[in-house]
Design goal:
Number of helices of chain B: 10
Distance between the termini of chain B: 58 Å
Strand order of the largest sheet of chain A: 1-4
Number of strands of chain A: 4
Largest sheet of chain A: 2 strands, antiparallel
CATH superfamily of the largest domain in chain B: Response regulator
Strand content of chain A: under 5%
CATH architecture of chain A: Orthogonal Bundle
Helix content of chain A: over 70%
Radius of gyration of chain A: 21 Å
Number of domains of chain B: 2
Order of helices and strands of chain B: HEEHEHEHEEHEHEHEHEHEHEE
Oligomer: heterodimer
Distance between the termini of chain A: 28 Å
Structural class of chain A: mainly alpha
Chain lengths: 328, 316
Amino acid sequence: MTTATPAGRRLAAQTGRFVSANGALVGLVVLCLALFIATPHFFTAENLVNVGVQASTIAVLAFGQTFVIVAAGIDLSVGSVAALASMAAAWMYADAGLPGLLALLAGLLTGLVVGLVSGFATSYGKLPAFIATLAMLSVARGLTLVISDGRPISTPDAISFLGSDIPIAGGVTLPVPILVLIVAGLVCSFVLNRTVIGRSMYAVGGNIESARLAGLPVKRVLVTVFALSGLYAGLAGLVLAGRLSSAQPQAASGYELDAIAAVVIGGASLSGGVGKASGTLVGALILAVIRNGLNILNVSSFWQQVVIGLVIAAAVGIDVLRRKDTRH
Amino acid sequence: MKKRLHIVALSLAAAMVLTVSACGRDAGSSDASSGTAGQKKVTLALSTLNNPFFVDVRDGALAEAEAKGLSLTVLDAQNDATTQSNQIQTDVSAGTAGIIINPVDSDAAAAAIKPALDKKIPVVAVDRAVTGATVTSFIASDNVAGGKQAADALAKAIGEKGKIIQLQGTAGTSASRDRGQGFTDGMKAYPNIQIVATQTAGFDRTQGLDVTTNLLQANPDVVGIFAENDEMALGAIQALGDKAGKTVFVVGFDGSADGLKAITAGTLTATIAQQPKELGKTAVDAMADALAGNTPAATQPVPVQTVTKDNVADFS
């Protein structure tokens, strides 16, 4: 077979380009295939829906994080902000007597305001994003404990709806967390690709000095990315609380690292300027699939942490190698 | 880059100074009680009073101190190891006769109590152990026995046969280790019960929900779930939906407020309740013993109680 047809060569080249441009997606497919072979319980409709629901919180947090990382920042506070937003909403309903829907909006507003504070601290206050959001991680978690007195608070129906299933037809249901994931992803993609502020995020992340010299409102862009991250964190927190029908004081602790991992697995660069919503979604799905698969295979909990770490390292490592190759 | 590192280091240092001074300001909210001249003064250094569990430990200790004729000074370290260390230092200088410590941090506590031990002042640790120093006595809930009681409660609920799932706590913690060990030991008495999956859910309700959902995919025919704390048990109940308490029975651990509510509602079959007041009482007993010149047992496990629908009214 020394003479390949032109069509065959073109197909091979196209496949090569696709694999190289979608490293994380290929990784996800390989992971799913491996689990499909390993266990009959993975590739069922019900289980795949479960994976989607379980990915939703991390995915929504990661979409918010994508804005920040594209603009060369980092937001370590998202897990705490998610907990604070859900607790604030539950408290508004249970103790301040706000109607459920308003309480939900108050929760989202809490996330937005906290994000704005981080944004102002980073841009106008000139604090490194790492420190500003590390401080916010602590402050937001502390406020959550203060509001809740360390106890879970039940959520109103409007919030519990975010974690429920909508019946469609013939006994088929659509889980609301998956719906939220899709909408949040589409909005993230739209903002990044189709709006001036979104394109400015890439410019600021790529080279902040050039962006400033080109006359972009750098500070306003930075405030916006953190505000969006806070808003998305609030939404993720409400979905999480909805699934449990209660806001938990320790909810989403440590999720910031999963969110950052999802964004980076999805092909974004921590030095900014690169990243897209679809990649982030794939990153979040990879994390959810690994956790789901390890549970189903009943892998020892000690080994699970090792496996998750190795998969994150492998996913990002392959991506780095791939980029190096294409440069030659 | 170097400049940026400096900024980071400076900010961290500033943050630490702020934290320490903030803690120093309102540290040491001590309330002495039932103190008359001639009584021996004993210090009870608690990690926090911002948790109902430790408030109960204090109440149990205060009642027993009064019965034993000891004057008990209660210190609240507000979960700060440095504050706790300072508090103990102050009380040792002030001539306390004995220290009952509930460490904020097991490792940090060793350094804090060493001066006291050097002066031959008896030190009793309660609820959390001190690592790196030998205390006079260590009082804690018997988590191993509790795990065994959970095994018995679950076996009884499912008719001593069938497949079950075990949800573990945070990997590597002593509570998870002891409860899990007690449970698996207890299950050895029931050869017809098979533990089909053992997975961690990090003592967390959300993880309890997700992990149980995943495990039910691979094991749809389970009839029982043991969770090493109530939070994970409540997550498992959420995953089970209508099946909880009807066809699948869940047993938790802790006797938390939400756990007791779930027992009343019938979704949680049993939980293993710790007895914080008993912890406080036993610690004071051990201290009184040591002050009388005796040698109390090096470790004293406080029994835990199985809570079911029959006796839940006694706990809530």
